[in-house]
Amino acid sequence: MIHFFYENTSEIIEENIKPWIEKIIITEEKRLGEINYIFCDDEYLLKINQDYLQHDYYTDIITFDNVRGKTISGEIFVSLQRIKDNASLISKNYEEETRRVIAHGILHLCGYKDKTDEQQKEMRAKEDFYLNIF
Q1: Residue among 73, 79, 70, 75 nearest 101 (CA)
Q2: Burial environment of residue 67 by CB neighbours within 10 A (0 to 12, 13 to 18, 19 or more)
Q3: Staple 77 to which of 49, 62, 66, 105, CB 3.0 to 4.6 Å?
């Protein structure tokens, strides 16, 4: 099951994106467990970053992995405010950048990392692939 929750934001993500998220999971040969997206503002996500990861900076996404085998489950916190700012900085469409970040969280749960340059390239290629099938 995929659930959307909202904290400190009035923006709403279209529910019709859920089948696309499920398609990503299936294409990656995983099973859908329990996925909670928590859409929020910068300050809410900064507090999560500080309290749980001991990082004192803004980010667009934090993914907490509860994966068991091939069953994908987790909590994905997304700052819509940060996405909007980032989209403006890189001259990208806000809706597309939001979908990219949503896919990014799922790809983390599917096992993809983004710490090294090589991992970042692979993650970006996967994001682009799934954005093209949206």
Answers
A1: 79
A2: middle
A3: 62
Query: How many Å apart are CA 102 and CA 86, to the nearest integer?
Result: 14
Question: How many Cα atoms are found within 13 Å in the side-chain-facing hemisphere of 11?
Answer: 15
Residue 76 is predicted with a pLDDT of 98
pTM (whole model) above 0.90: yes
Strands across the sheet containing 31-40: 2-7, 31-40, 71-79, 61-65
Pairing outcome for strands 61-65 and 71-79: antiparallel
What's the pLDDT tens digit per position in 83-106? 999 999 999 999 999 999 999 999
CA–CA dist 36, 43 (Å, integer): 19
pLDDT tens figures, 42-77: 999 999 999 999 999 999 999 999 999 999 999 999
> Alpha-carbon distance 11 to 44, whole Å?
14
As given in the structure block, the two tokens for residue 125 are: 């290629």
Share in percent of the chain as helix, strand, coil (round to 5):
50, 25, 25
- Give the pLDDT score at 95: 95
